[in-house]
């Protein structure tokens, strides 16, 4: 059940970072940027669950990875356009969530 822990840790850390980004956006009067980064983190956190399902389903990982990241990026951009958020900041949040997931996976892999 290591995959479940990685997904859970990714979601929890992404939510905390998203809340921090929103707070920083309000403090520094950059609300749109803070909200955009937070949204990107939340959308990016979904990727861990999608990976878990792909691996469990037996789909080819390389093809599914490309399609999954294209889909998540498209969703992020549509969300940004609909909410009037910063597309670049949202994509940075999405990328940050991927780094969080990698860190959670490495941490889990190093555990005995």
Task: Explain what this protein looks like in three dimensions.
The chain has 112 residues and is mostly helical. It has one domain (2-106). It is built from four helices and no strands. The chain has helices at residues 2-27, 31-57, 61-83, 87-110. Helix 2 (31-57) packs across helix 4 (87-110). The protein is flat and about 45 Å long. The model has no long low-confidence stretch (mean pLDDT 86).
Key descriptive features of the protein:
mainly alpha, 89% helix, 0% strand
Q: What does the overall shape look like? A: flat
Cα-based radius of gyration, to the nearest Å: 15 Å
Helix content bin = over 70%
Supply the number of helical segments.
4
Mean pLDDT: 86
Number of domains: 1
Low-confidence sequence ranges:
none
- Derived from helix and strand composition plus strand pairing, the structural class reads mainly alpha
The biggest sheet amounts to:
none
| Estimated share of beta-strand residues | under 5%
Number of strands: 0
Distance between the termini: 14 Å
SSE succession? HHHH
Furnish the topology, listing elements before pairings.
Elements (H helix, E strand, L loop, with lengths): L1 H26 L3 H27 L3 H23 L3 H24 L2
Helix pairs in contact: 1-2, 1-4, 2-3, 2-4, 3-4
Q: Can you summarize this structure?
A:
The protein has 112 residues and is mainly α.
């Amino acid at each position: 059940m290591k995959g479940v822990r990685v997904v859970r840790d990714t979601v929890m850390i992404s939510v905390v970072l998203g809340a921090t980004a929103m707070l920083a956006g309000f403090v520094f009067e950059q609300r749109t940027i803070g909200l955009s980064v937070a949204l990107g983190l939340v959308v990016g956190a979904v990727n861990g669950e999608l990976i878990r399902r792909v691996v469990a389903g037996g789909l080819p990982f390389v093809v599914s990875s490309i399609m999954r990241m294209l889909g998540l990026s498209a969703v992020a951009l549509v969300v940004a356009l609909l909410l009037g958020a910063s597309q670049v900041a949202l994509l940075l949040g999405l990328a940050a969530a991927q780094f969080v997931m990698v860190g959670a996976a490495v941490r889990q892999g190093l555990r005995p």
